[in-house]
Structure formats: C-alpha cells, structure tokens
Amino acid sequence: MLDKFSSTPDYAVNKKDYLDDQIIENRDLRSPGYLKLAEKEISYRIKIVILFVLDALALYLGWLVAFDHSHHSWQHLNLYFLQQDPAILSLFLTVLGFLLFLFSAYDLYRKGNRSRNLSNPIKAVFFAHIAVVPVVLRFYEPQVLDQLLVAGVITLLLVTIQRLTLNWTWSYVRQKYYPLKQRILLLVIQKN
C-alpha cells in the first residue's frame, strides 16, 4: 500500500482513463455509496430543471393573461402574443432574467428550508417586476404599467401555488416511497 504513495504512478503512454481505472480497481462493489450519490444528484438536478421550467411558465402565463390585447374572453388567448410586439418581448426577457437571478440569489433552486420558504419566491417575483418599472415609465406607454402590475400579481399567484403544490408533492413522495428504496441484506447462520 505504501508503494502507491511513495512512488510515482505508472502512467501508460496512450492510456487516457488511468484515473478511472484506478477508481474502478479500488472501489468496493458491495458499497452502494457511488450509486446513492449519483441517484441523489440526478433527482436534485431534475428538481432544478422542473422548477426552472415551471417558474418560466408561470411568468409566461401571467404575462399572457395581462398583455394579450386580442382576447375578449378566455377562449381566445393568443399564445404568440410576445412575437407580435418586440418591445413587450424585450421587457418580458428582462423580467425573466431578473426573476431567475433573484430566484438564484434567494437560493430557491437549492436544497434546504430556504427553497421551501414561500416568502422568498414572493419577494423575487415582486422585485423582478419592480426592477423594470423605471424602464416602463421612460420608454413605454402608460397602460403597460397597469399590465405589468396585473402580470406581476398573476405570476405571484401562479408561482406560489406551484411552489406549494410541488413542496407538498415532494414531501408526500419522500414519506411514502423513500423507505422502499432502502435495501437491507440479512444474513442468517443456522446452527444445528
């Protein structure tokens, strides 16, 4: 064992995955540590992607209801309203950028209690919409400010409902199905 620490490793000339071979050689296959870590990381990354997509979708739906000029009833929503007005599209992308930055700043895409706290998403949505008010006052028509307010309130409601639902769902799944994933190996030796 000491020869591994005292001598230089014998690197093969054209062998690119020397370290991978060393890890595989020294790994105990009975230890499930590697698989558990990978499983937790994958589920955590999937959770981040789901949260990111749902937050962007909540913002889009809030803006769809507030900024779509062509609907007179809920049956005729124009899903492509952002493509019709480049100024509104740039404003939407600015708010989306602020929203994602603030969600990251409030640690809403991380593990722990801060991501489950409902006051942080409310603050993030509020500040993301407030951050563009000076731009709206300077470069846009006055009715855009009213529509921005409506979009902010709808986005706030959608994000809050979405976060409540996802937190409840994840806690339910964790309580119901997580104990089933733990494997126990029992060895019994019979003495005659």
Secondary structure topology:
Blueprint: H1 2-6, H2 18-26, H3 33-67, H4 81-84, H5 86-105, H6 119-130, H7 133-139, H8 142-181
Tally of DSSP helical segments: 8
Gap between N and C termini, in Å? 41 Å
Oligomeric assembly? single chain
Give the SSE string. HHHHHHHH
Give the biggest sheet: none
Counting DSSP E segments of at least 2 residues, the number of strands comes to 0
Provide the low-confidence segments as ranges: 1-8
How large is the share of residues in beta strands? under 5%
Mean pLDDT across all amino acids: 77
The coarse silhouette is elongated
Helix content: 55-70%
Radius of gyration: 26 Å
Structure classification: mainly alpha
Write a structural description.
The chain has 192 residues and is mainly α. It has a domain at 86-168. It is built from eight helices and no strands. The protein has helices at residues 2-6, 18-26, 33-67, 81-84, 86-105, 119-130, 133-139, 142-181. The protein is elongated and about 90 Å long. The protein starts with a helix and ends in an 11-residue tail after the last helix.
